[in-house]
């Protein structure tokens, strides 16, 4: 890959990873539309590490507080709203870890059809609009029950299909269960940490066993660009979500889906 391709795709990954528009769908479509080569394992590892660093740094205070609260709950029986949220994140992660491993091992190459991406982009965009307009938006992430966390976790497994959007489907589920927009987004981003860590770890293990040549300078470039872009994306999304709502992202998804149907039907 050329430097410009690395930079553009890393920017795209960092921008779309935490917005409800599907990073995996965009990373499949962009090279396809521009005639670029497949990104390769090294790029996948680099951008995963960049987005993981971004979300971990942004929520570093939350992660520390949740970790301490979870340990106090586990070893001393001290239950707080933060330990409850930590358990909700753990429970919400279980479904995609199990199903994601199965998909990774046997079905990873079955979901790259642009028409499938167009369909999932449209359908889950409309579901996002429905949840945003019909959810009560009255609860925060600390009030999630374990059952609700599991439901959001099950919804997250749908994001294994490109075009669905991991953040989009978890925010949709959170809104449908009565969370506010910001609470849905925050819980979605907290859920992303173990998911990105797992996906990046699998890609790294595959890279170790691969004969693919690695340019560490380009790898570092991809990591840095994806990380900075992802951090800014998280920050501005959480700041603006209550002001602009989710309709702009729904409109974008509809326009993109129509364009893809026009190109590939």
Helical percentage: over 70%
Strand content: under 5%
Structural class: mainly alpha
Cα-atom Rg, whole angstroms? 18 Å
N- to C-terminal separation?
29 Å
Number of helices: 11
| Total beta-strand segments | 0
Which outline best applies? globular
Uncertain residue segments: none
Overall pLDDT level: 92
Describe the protein:
- The chain has 265 residues and is mainly alpha-helical.
- The chain has one domain.
- It is 78% helix and 0% strand.
- The chain has helices spanning 3-16, 23-34, 40-58, 60-76, 81-106, 114-134, 146-156, 166-176, 181-208, 216-244, 247-264.
- Helix 1 (3-16) packs antiparallel against helix 2 (23-34) and helix 3 (40-58) crosses helix 10 (216-244).
- The radius of gyration is 18 Å and the shape is globular.
- The mean pLDDT is 92.
How is this fold's topology laid out?
Elements (H helix, E strand, L loop, with lengths): L2 H14 L6 H12 L5 H19 L1 H17 L4 H26 L7 H21 L11 H11 L9 H11 L4 H28 L7 H29 L2 H18 L1
Explain briefly what this protein structure is.
By secondary structure, the protein is mostly helical. The protein contains eleven helices and no strands.
Descriptive labels:
mainly alpha; 11 helices; globular
């Amino acid at each position: 890959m050329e430097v410009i391709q690395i930079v553009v795709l890393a920017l795209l990954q960092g921008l779309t990873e935490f917005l409800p528009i599907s990073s995996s769908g965009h990373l499949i479509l962009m090279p396809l539309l521009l005639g670029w080569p497949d990104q390769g394992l090294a790029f996948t590892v680099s951008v995963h590490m960049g987005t993981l660093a971004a979300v971990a740094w942004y929520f570093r205070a939350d992660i520390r507080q949740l970790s301490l609260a979870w340990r106090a709950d586990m070893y001393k029986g001290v239950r707080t709203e933060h330990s409850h949220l930590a358990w909700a994140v753990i429970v919400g992660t279980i479904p995609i870890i199990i199903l994601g491993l199965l998909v990774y091992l046997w079905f990873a190459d079955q979901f790259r059809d642009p028409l499938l991406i167009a369909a999932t982009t449209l359908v889950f965009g409309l579901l996002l609009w429905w949840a945003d307009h019909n959810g009560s938006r009255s609860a925060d992430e600390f009030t999630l029950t374990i059952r609700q966390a599991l439901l959001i976790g099950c919804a997250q497994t749908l994001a294994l299909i490109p075009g669905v959007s991991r953040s989009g489907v978890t925010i949709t589920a959170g809104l449908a269960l009565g969370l506010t927009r910001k609470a849905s987004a925050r819980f979605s981003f907290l859920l992303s940490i173990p998911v990105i860590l797992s996906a990046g770890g699998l890609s790294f293990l595959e890279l170790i066993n691969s004969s693919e040549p690695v340019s560490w300078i380009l790898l570092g470039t991809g990591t840095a660009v994806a990380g900075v872009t992802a951090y800014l994306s998280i920050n501005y999304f959480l700041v603006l979500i209550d002001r602009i709502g989710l309709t702009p992202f729904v409109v974008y998804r509809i326009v993109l889906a129509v364009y893809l149907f026009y190109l590939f039907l």
